[in-house]
Amino acid sequence: MSETTDITTADVCAAAIADAFKDDGEIFASPMGMLPMLGVRLAKLTSNPDLVISDGEALFLAGVPPLFAKADKVEGWIPFRKVFDVVAYGKRHVMMGATQIDRHGNQNISAIGDFAQPKRQLLGSRGAPGNTVNNRTSYWVPRHSPRVFVEAVDIVSGVGPSRAAAAGAARFNDIHRVVSNLGVLDVNGPERTLRLLSVHPGVTVAQVREASGCAIHVDGADSDVPETRLPTTEELLVIREVLDPKGLRFKEVPRPEVAQLSSRGSVRRSPTSSGSGTRSCRPAWAGSPAPVWSPAPLTPAGWASWPAPRCPTRSSRRRSSRSRAAPTPPSAST
Fold this sequence. Notes:
Elements: H1 9-21, E1 28-31, H2 34-45, E2 53-54, E3 59-61, E4 74-77, H3 80-89, E5 92-97, E6 100-102, E7 107-108, E8 111-113, E9 118-121, H4 128-134, E10 136-141, E11 149-150, H5 161-166, E12 174-180, E13 183-186, E14 195-199, H6 205-210, H7 233-243, E15 260-261, E16 267-268, H8 314-323
Parallel strand pairs: 1-5, 5-10, 6-11, 10-12
Antiparallel strand pairs: 2-3, 3-4, 6-7, 8-9, 12-13, 13-14, 15-16
């Protein structure tokens, strides 16, 4: 089995997501995204075998296939119209993404900017309001940054506990966990605000605060915040050999050894922390704007001499058809 020094941030995040589902019992788990799917399936195979999982479309699965693999064992059918019955019934734990999440646990996946004239249009609220007032809801944030963790979201898609209470919808509102690439949070701080539960290996509380655009509550002193647990040997085996042998998880949370891009677009490798026994989970860009990818032009020799592909416009096609010679009529002998 791999050594402790081979445990990556993605592995830690997968185990943290699995922990968010471990005490749910027999409940429909609805992960949205690659790492949430990995964490849910990890929980199904280790800490909570009673979880009900689907293929993300219309089938309940009896087996637990690798990420994006075709299911080989099916135990039920859930067409799209039936999903709303499950949402209303409430025996469901959904883990969504969040373009923004504020200190009161409200989530935004709708748009950035003013509602009347947004600067950026996103997915739209979709099922977020219904999820957050009917089902246990968690969030996955692959890049913890001040742009994501804000004082107040621009548009409320997912409803936090304070807004739910004000609207009389607090009975089933349950914002359970927020897992990011830096740590694990919940909304059990003062007045139901964000609270830091743990920091990933190599990350400090100060670094989480630096990478957040809102206040993050800590119980006691910063030194009292525990480190997120490392995945067990069994969990690592399941992650690497069963669920994600292709390493798809690193597309969301890159390995520490993977080159980080500098502002020039050149390659810079993140050093390994010495003496701690684990690699640092703090990305090179945490607390600052994400690096911009500006690669050198990939121009082979003689590129300029290659003919440019032609894509005629409609008018040029009309001109071309008019310029063609008319067909020669057949002779009388034929």
